[in-house]
Amino acid sequence: MIKNRLPIIIIGIPSVLWILNSGGIVFFTALTTVALFCIHEFYGLAKAKEFAPNYFTGYIFVVMISCLYFNIFNISLIWCLAFLFLSLISTIFIETFRYSINPIVNTSITFLGILYVGGLFCSMIALREFDSFNGTNFTLMMLASVWICDSFAYIFGKLFGKKKLIQRLSPKKTIMGFCAGIIGAFISIYTLNYFGIISYNLNLYSIIILAVIIGVFGQWGDIAESMFKRDAKIKDSGKILMGHGGFLDRCDSLIITSPLVLLYVLYLQNQIF
């Protein structure tokens, strides 16, 4: 298992850091590619239950939403609503020509995939663009904190965890591990802020809020994907990452975290509300 995972770790970590540092079109292209793998794997879970989501529609709209996020600070809200309506209308329209057995379920899953991967996960593109415009490192903060959160949750849950969090969905997750993950996120954000790595002076109140967002919803994103996989009776969403499962398995903590961090960062800058 370790031998299988080692090449991905050795190649993956430097690659992620380089892509993150590059930003712009490099980050956009990389994250959109990962998102395409994620939505493919998400639809694969539905296919395992003998449903037939429209893969092509999902691919097209993930790319379109990524483009929208890439230019989100240069367009009006009306375009965001237009994309939302267009994706739903197109999903329903295309389904009428497919002669599928379960059109209600297939349409719902197709649209859910677009929102789950495109709407939520791809919001990280907008967060990275925010960093580029403002000289901040909130994307790096989020990725580092999610990793520390997962590590704290795993280590402390394994050593001291007894009472299960939601056993029917994730038997290995414990309440102790869940709480430790939140603390880990707080320590990570506090440390990055203290040494000026975020390039934004966060007060204690903001650090706590970001720690809760990343610590709670990052772990809940993992639980949500576990729920989908258990329903499909599949252990891993994919096999492309040797020893690590699929891209959806690696990104599940970021799917819900990314849009919430983006919203709070925009709030800090008084760009919303």
What does this entry show, briefly?
The chain has helices at residues 2-22, 24-48, 55-70, 77-95, 103-121, 123-134, 138-160, 175-194, 204-232, 247-268. It is mainly α and 273 residues long.
Notes on the structure:
With 273 residues, the protein is mostly helical. The protein has one domain. The protein is 75% helix and 0% strand. It is built from ten helices and no strands. The protein has helices spanning 2-22, 24-48, 55-70, 77-95, 103-121, 123-134, 138-160, 175-194, 204-232, 247-268. It starts with a helix and ends in a 5-residue tail after the last helix. The mean pLDDT is 87.
Helix/strand/pairing class, anyone? mainly alpha
Rg for CA atoms: 19 Å
Taken in chain order, the helices and strands follow as HHHHHHHHHH
Strand elements, count: 0
Strand content: under 5%
Helicity range? over 70%
Contiguous helical run count: 10
Whole-number tally of structural domains: 1
Low-confidence stretches: none
For the biggest sheet, the summary is: none
Ends: how far apart? Answer: 48 Å
Question: How would you state the average pLDDT, rounded?
Answer: 87
Overall geometry:
globular
